[in-house]
Design goal:
Layout lengths: L2 H25 L7 H15 L13 H12 L1 H4 L4 H12 L8 E4 L4 E4 L4 H9 L3 H17 L2 H7 L9 H11 L8 H24 L1 H13 L5 H4 L7 H14 L3 H15 L6 H13 L5 H21 L7 H12 L8 E2 L1 H6 L15 H39 L3 H15 L2 E2 L16 H19 L3 H41 L1
Antiparallel strand pairs: 1-2, 3-4
Length: about 500
């Protein structure tokens, strides 16, 4: 199946799903059962997620993701956050000395693209971190990628942004791969872990919210353009945070607050940004404390969160680099500040994209390093100029999300934290799978809006391959979607105040 055909099929399925949900809403189908149409759409949508089992042009696993996450985690004690590409080149020199080296590579210490020759000293330093036995293992595991993919593909991977997950994720990954070879058997088997996690999440959603919500959740997951299989499908443990978030919110709905806190703590420890989902929960906690309601759920949730977060922090110290791993991670994340990519979405991008910051407006014949360096500089300059305007609108959106959370139970309040994430962060497209949480919110407005936006994005993607344009549409659409979804709650909160003010004036 070609990419264009996949887009057309997903567009048709999105339109059918929209029609089915509107019809159910019109008929008042509130019994929680999916019915045969939604159930069939859910199954077909999950198949559509894989390109109807075409995966990556017939290959189940994801080359770039496994290169980074398998090698990066298994050999983290030696590689840290700065050694993967240098070790890769050294391993290629040793195992296949006849293969030409790339002309350029990304220096993971600075995030700059530089000539390979300029990193010779650092390459030697990285090589010396290994014992003889560990180095032989790395060279052997690295051969898996050289043997199965073209050299230009490997060279392209070395221009990516390296291995960046928190130490907690590294600890979990090493539980699976530290003692196993990287080969044609282990890579596909470990890629199945994400399917197991997504399956568990679907089962828990069904037990918590019923078959109708589960079907809608599966439809959003399967048809969403930004998080399609092409990005992290067939990778290694890339949906662990997502499964933890989904199940955690289900536990909130089932009033298993300690478990919910622990799961959201895990998601935070392995991907950081899910911590913003706590914003709505915190508002609910403050509301209940002010109303002097039973605070035990707050204590249980906080205990589960703090306890699990402590365990996760300790686990991150057991990755072969000691407690220093956390400091190295912080420096690695800071290094990425000011590094932009075109496959991202977030409220801030609404303010940053203009004729000056569109990549297609740069001269096409520039070399890769120079071309992207100029674009990065333009983005950073526009960000500095427009930051006050962005912060003002972001503050309003966060305030609206928190106001809406004030009126909602804990699970829905957590879902509204997705709006806070959108307001405050710019995330790679595949992390926006978090938007599927809107299916867990009571009412269909958010789900219908997200399906409508997905249809628009699919139409745009069918007409252009410019990822910057596509994800600008995503960012603009999400801004409109959240404004529409949050407006009724904000109005409902303000209306009694207006009435009270009017009554007071009349009394005077």
């Amino acid at each position: 199946m070609t990419e264009r055909t996949e887009i057309l099929v997903k567009l048709a399925l999105t339109a059918i799903a929209l029609g089915a949900l509107v019809w159910r809403r019109h008929r008042g189908s509130e019994d929680g059962r999916a019915g045969w149409l939604l159930a069939c759409l859910a199954v077909v949508s999950m198949a559509a997620f894989t390109g109807f089992f075409a995966f990556h042009q017939g290959r189940f696993t994801h080359f770039g993701e496994n290169f980074h996450y398998q090698l990066g985690s298994k050999y983290f004690p030696e590689l840290g956050y700065d050694g993967l590409y240098d070790a890769s080149i050294a391993a290629q020199e040793e195992s296949d000395p006849g293969l030409p080296l790339p002309a350029i590579v990304r220096d993971l210490r600075t995030n700059s693209i530089v000539p390979v020759a300029s990193l010779a000293a650092h390459r030697d330093e990285v090589r010396k971190r290994f014992t003889a036995e560990r180095w032989r293992g790395f060279v052997r595991d690295h051969r898996y990628f050289l043997d199965r993919y073209t050299l230009p593909k490997v060279d392209e991977i070395r221009l990516d942004h390296g291995y960046n997950p928190p130490p907690t994720w590294t600890f979990v990954a090493r539980l699976f791969n530290s003692r196993l070879p990287i080969d044609a058997t282990t890579i596909p088997l470990m890629a199945l872990l994400d399917w197991v996690l997504v399956g568990v999440a679907l089962v828990v959603v069904r037990r918590t919210y019923g078959t109708a919500v589960t079907a809608v959740f599966a439809i959003l997951f399967g048809l969403g353009y930004p998080w399609g299989y092409t990005w992290v499908g067939g990778a290694f443990l890339r949906y662990d945070w997502f499964a933890a978030v989904v199940v955690g919110i289900c536990m909130l709905a089932r009033k298993r607050h300690a478990t919910a806190g622990a799961l959201l703590a895990y998601a935070t420890a392995v991907r950081i940004f899910p911590v913003l989902l706590l914003a709505g929960i915190a508002v609910g906690a403050i509301r209940d404390l002010l109303a002097r309601r039973d605070p035990r759920w707050i204590v249980r949730f906080a205990a589960g969160f703090a306890g699990c977060l402590g365990v996760c922090a300790l686990a991150g110290c057991l990755t072969g680099r000691g407690p220093a791993a956390w400091g190295e991670f912080v420096r690695d994340i800071r290094k990425h500040h000011g590094t932009w990519t075109t496959n991202t979405a977030g409220l801030e991008l609404v303010f940053l994209y203009n004729s000056e910051t569109m990549v297609t407006n740069l001269p096409a014949d520039w070399s890769l390093p120079r071309r992207w360096a100029v674009w990065q500089a333009a983005m950073n300059r526009v960000e500095a100029e427009r930051r006050p305007f962005y912060l003002g609108l972001a503050g309003l959106l966060v305030a609206a999300a928190l106001a809406a959370a004030w009126r909602r139970p804990a699970d829905e309040a957590a879902v509204l934290g997705v709006a806070v994430i959108f307001a405050l962060l710019v995330l790679s497209c595949y992390y926006w799978v978090v938007l599927t949480l809107l299916a867990l919110r009571r009412g269909t407005a958010g789900t219908l809006g997200l399906l409508g936006l997905n249809a628009l994005v699919l139409v745009v993607a069918g007409g252009t391959s410019d990822t910057q344009v596509i994800y600008l549409v995503v960012s603009l659409g999400l801004a409109a979607l959240f404004a529409a979804v949050l407006a009724p709650d904000v109005v409902a909160i303000l209306r009694p105040q207006r009435h009270a003010a009017g009554s007071k004036a009349a009394a005077c």
